[in-house]
Structures are given as structure tokens and as C-alpha cells.
Amino acid sequence: MAQKKHGSTHHLIPKSRGGPKESWNLMDKIIKEHRAWHLFFYNLLPCEAIAKILGTHKKNLISTNKRIKAWQVLFGSDASSREAIEVIKNTWTLRWCFTFEQCSNNGVCKKQCPVLELYEKGGLKW
Fold first, then answer.
1. E runs forming strands in the chain
2. How far from each other are the two terminal CA atoms of the chain, in whole angstroms?
3. Is 48 domain-assigned?
4. Is residue 60 part of a domain?
5. Among 46, 53, 107, 120, which lies 20 to 30 A Cα-Cα from 73?
6. Total domains, the chain
7. Are 117 and 102 in contact (CB under 8 A)?
8. Do 45 and 108 form a contact (C-beta atoms < 8 A)?
9. pTM of the model
């Protein structure tokens, strides 16, 4: 992970899943938020994270103290699942690729985009 003085670079498509080091795939994030994302969602894409929230009751999502703290950092302590989804849509999404409405509940992008192109070329690991 590239470290900066007050932030770090988040790969929207994780390097471990074939994400390139190109500008369209990089997002500067505050270190605390970046760590919280990976603690909570590991290497999920934003739409996969939304699908996880949609498919899991909030109390099961925040089942450990570390995950509770990560939720608080990412979304605020009193955030509902709906509010968490809005935060992801507004601050963690692949804006160049799709909006939430174009993403099905299981996290599959419904229109052609760089993520799917990378997957079709065998470069994205699911």
C-alpha cells in the first residue's frame, strides 16, 4: 500500500484481484479510513460491499470490537445499513464504471466497464 504523510492510496480494484496501478483505479484515502475499509470489507469491490450489507443483518456485520470500530470510522457510530450504503456510493465507488442502480444485488456490474474488461481478459481474480 502506498503511504503518504496523512493518507494512503486505495486500489478500487485491489492489486490482489488484478487491479492495475493506473490513475483510474487509485483513490487517496485517510489512512484510518483505508485500514477500516480493509478490516471491514477485506478486498471487496464497492458494489460487493453494498451487496454484503444488503444481505446481512447489521448486528451480524459488526460482530467484533474491531469491526464495530471500523464501522464507526467508515460510517459513524449510529449509521444504519442504508446510510452506510450511501457513504459507499458517494465516497468509495468506481464512479467511472457504474452507479449503484446499475449494480445488481449480488455485486455484478450490469454494464460494460473497465472492471468487466479486466475480468474478461483474465486479469481480475474473483
1. 7-11, 26-30
2. 20
3. yes
4. yes
5. 107
6. 1
7. no
8. no
9. 0.71
- pLDDT tens digits, one per residue of 59-82: 788 888 998 999 999 999 999 988
Residues 6+ apart with CB under 8 A from 6: 30, 31
In a domain, 126, yes or no: no
Q: pLDDT digits over 72-110, tens only?
A: 999 999 999 889 988 988 888 755 454 444 444 444 454
pLDDT at 120 over 80: no
In tens, the pLDDT along 38-62 reads 999 999 888 788 878 887 877 788 8
110 with 104: CB under 8 angstroms?
A: yes
Query: Partners of 8 in the beta sheet?
Result: 3, 29
User: Whole domain around residue 20: which residue ranges?
Assistant: 7-120
Angle at CA of residue 102, ends 98 and 108, nearest 5°: 85
Q: Please report whether residue 1 resides in a domain.
A: no
As beta bridge partners, residue 86 has none
One-letter amino acid at 105 equals N
